Amino acid sequence: MKKTSSLYRAIAKSMLGRYAVYAVNLLSMMVMARVFTPETFGTVAAIMVFYVFFQLMAEVGLGPAIINLGHLAREDRDGLFGLTLTIGLLLAFLFTALAPLFLSFYQLPRVDEVVPYIAVSLLFFAASIVPHALLLREQAFYRIANGGLAGELLGTIATISLAQLIDPLHALAAKGAFSAGTLFFVIWYFSANTEFGRPLPGRKFSAIKPLLGFSGYQFGFNFINYFSRNLDNILVGKYMGATALGNYDKAYQLMKYPLMLLTFAMTPAIQPVIRQHAGDPRKVEEIHRDFTFKLSLLGAAAGLAMYVLAKWIILFALGDQWLDVVPIIRILAIAIPVQVVLSTSGSFFQAMNRADLLFLSGSLSAVVMVSAISVGIIARDMEILCWGLVAAFHINFVQAYYYLYRKVFFAPLHQHLVRMTPAAGVVLGMVAYSLLPSLL
Questions:
Q1: CB of 329 within 8 A of CB of 251?
Q2: What pLDDT does residue 426 have?
Q3: pLDDT at position 10 over 70
Q4: Are the C-beta atoms of 359 and 220 separated by less than 8 Å?
Q5: What is the DSSP string of 384-437?
Q6: Quick one: which H or E segment has residue 161?
Q7: By CB neighbour count within 10 A (0-12 exposed, 13-18 middle, 19+ buried), where does 158 fall?
């Protein structure tokens, strides 16, 4: 019980810090949804998809690898920091140079104008990788939250102010650069109080060699996961247009808020705590089983609330110009319970040093997700696309936990699935209510 309580204490600290950031993020979205049009949001979202890919290239799985380290010499620490800065600078230049290709791919007017702002965000993201990992390793969640809060506040204030002075598209695109820059400077400052100290630019790039085994599989998983989670945005933007992408992106963003509140706020705490018990799979499985059962009940409640209150949520959060989002978010809400639980699985693979199995599971997930997305895009139907995603998330839930239980915990999978029964009942109820009118 002591080990379980240590996880919950760490999670509580992580959640309290993150919730302040999420609250400001939600308020920011509510304000900006009334200032900028779906088309403007869609144009920026089209480039943000590629920004996420370049983030993966910059991070190369280093963050989780650093968290698992027991020792890191100052020269190695600075070498890793110098390496990430160099990679970030090179990728920022490459990203800027690709602007004509992005314009040619999407055929969306002015999409290339967003690129320089996102390139600046990419540089600051790369610079944040090492200090952020050092703070996570120390479970310094409040300090990380302070950086996120400062970044979100400054980014939102700057964006709203710029919208009164310059082109709205440029103002919205600049938000990420302000946020990423502020976040970097805050967490870099706070990293001085970590065990390994504040990193400075170094030249020992070879410090990455001992981390390549773990970080290589982590990067492979992130790379594959990127395509399975972002291909929908890429193809919606290309084949359905900026307005459709703006609506879809906002629906997906709102659907992710329960995940942010229930999962994303918790997962930073899981790896640093569980890695201390990596030699005892049975104990970790007991902690996991108790944790995910409680999480599944919260996810079921959140999914049902978003399904029932979809219209009111849209009107409150975005305004009446976004009412086309309502049927999309109702379908996506059905996937919230399973995603809330599934999103924590990666941290357990990482904490148990099984990034190889995480990579394998991620590869299978990508095949399922890409297949579901392809069906929706071929049909040119947003609702079919969303139903495909709901099905894909549930299939991937089963295969991911098969590997976690059989290959990591060495325990039968049914122990986990039985605990998910209450949440499964809620999901089946939402599916039945959605499909019943069309079957009658």
A1: yes
A2: 94
A3: no
A4: yes
A5: HHHHHHHHHHHHHHHHHHHHIIIIII-S-THHHHHHTHHHHHHHHHHHHHHHHH
A6: helix 141-163
A7: middle
Taken as a whole, the chain contains a residue count of 440
Residue 6 sits at the vertex; the CA angle it makes with 4 and 12, to the nearest 5 degrees, is 105
Q: pTM value?
A: 0.66
Dihedral class, residue 61 (left if φ above 0, else alpha if ψ from -120 to 50, else beta): left
What tokens does 200 get? Answer: 């400075």
pLDDT at residue number 1: 47
Determine contact, residues 176/152, Cβ cutoff 8 Å: no
State the distance between the two ends of the chain, measured CA to CA, in whole angstroms: 51
Instruction: Please give the structure tokens belonging to residue 163.
Output: 């919208």
Residue bearing the bigger pLDDT, 114 or 67: 114
Amino acid at 102: F
Extract the tokens encoding 96. 């800027």
Cβ count within 10 A of residue 227: 14
> Could you give phi then psi for residue 167, rounded to 5 degrees?
-55, 130
Could you tell me which of 414, 294, 409 has the C-alpha nearest to residue 349?
Answer: 409
Domain borders along the chain are 1-16+211-440, 35-203
